[in-house]
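Design a sequence for this backbone.
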């Protein structure tokens, strides 16, 4: 008889725990992903996103320049990976404001990434026929999207 009482108590406690414990550990309001993720995961995600956007910025710009009657200025204004500040800034017409050269590079690669909260720098190595040059893309994060704020050419 006493054994049956213990079993009944254990069952009641177990049912109570199953109903109430999830409410304790799982809040009713969903938390934003940024609050739940560990800091290192957020940093790694930012690194990946800024790298993808740097490559996409170059690819979109390069594709636009190959279209008939497009200029560097018109391609910059159409580029979805630049910030509004960069789109409005006066650009030097003596050379291409993105490639920092009179010629388009044969290729480019991401060299290094530095992120500080909502700003970042991406080093890009541009390869030309007989040389290479490193430029720095300054990014800003707005509405969780990394956009190019400025291109720092090495000789300007």
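Sequence:
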């Amino acid at each position: 008889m006493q054994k049956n009482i213990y079993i009944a108590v254990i069952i009641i406690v177990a049912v109570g725990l199953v109903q109430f414990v999830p409410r304790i550990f799982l809040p009713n309001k969903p938390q934003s992903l940024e609050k739940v993720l560990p800091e290192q995961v957020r940093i790694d995600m930012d690194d990946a996103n800024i790298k993808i956007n740097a490559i996409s910025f170059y690819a979109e710009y390069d594709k636009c320049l190959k279209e008939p009657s497009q200029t560097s200025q018109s391609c910059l204004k159409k580029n979805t990976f630049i910030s509004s500040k960069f789109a409005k800034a006066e650009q030097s017409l003596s050379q291409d404001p993105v490639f920092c050269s009179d010629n388009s590079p044969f290729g480019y690669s991401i060299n290094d990434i530095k992120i500080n909260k909502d700003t970042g720098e991406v080093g890009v190595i541009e390869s030309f026929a007989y040389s290479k040059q490193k430029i720095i893309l300054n990014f800003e994060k707005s509405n969780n999207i990394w956009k190019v704020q400025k291109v720092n050419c090495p000789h300007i």
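Residues 32-152 form a domain with the Nuclear Transport Factor 2; Chain: A, fold (CATH 3.10.450.50).
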